[in-house]
Design a protein that fits this description.
This protein has about 120 residues and is mostly helical. The protein is built from three helices and two strands. It has one domain. The radius of gyration is 21 Å and the shape is elongated.
Length: about 120
């Protein structure tokens, strides 16, 4: 049974790529009391795009179940969803790597330059 309304793996990858490439320039802010890694903003964008894709996969399954009048237990639906995610994730890897190579990131450090940070710990 096709639980995805005819949406192929290639269609799912294309769906993901639209969101992934919607932002080819990212800005990463580092707050004064925050530690960040150079790739944090890229990782956040990729994860957001993957979650959008995963929502779409789940939506396709639920639409098919509704349209076909199927009755599936939650575990069965989750199994179908998890298997499709396992199929799709490896297909995204090369696209994600290419995106990481081509995205431009502007890094902005929000730590004030004029005043050094003061130690605000109480004295013993």
């Amino acid at each position: 049974m096709d639980y995805f309304n005819g949406v192929t793996n290639e269609d799912f990858v294309s769906y993901f790529l639209v969101d992934l490439h919607s932002r080819m320039e990212l800005t990463q802010y580092t707050y004064p009391h925050e530690m960040t890694e150079p790739q944090d903003v890229i990782d956040e964008h990729i994860i957001r795009c993957q979650n959008i894709l995963f929502d779409y996969i789940r939506e396709c399954i639920l639409d098919t179940i509704y349209e076909e009048g199927l009755i599936l237990k939650g575990d069965e639906t989750n199994f179908i969803y998890d298997k499709k995610k396992e199929e799709i994730l490896p297909l995204l890897k090369m696209h994600i790597n290419a995106y990481i190579e081509n995205v431009k990131v502007q890094y902005i450090d929000l730590t004030p330059k004029s005043e050094p940070l003061k130690d605000v710990r109480p004295e013993d």
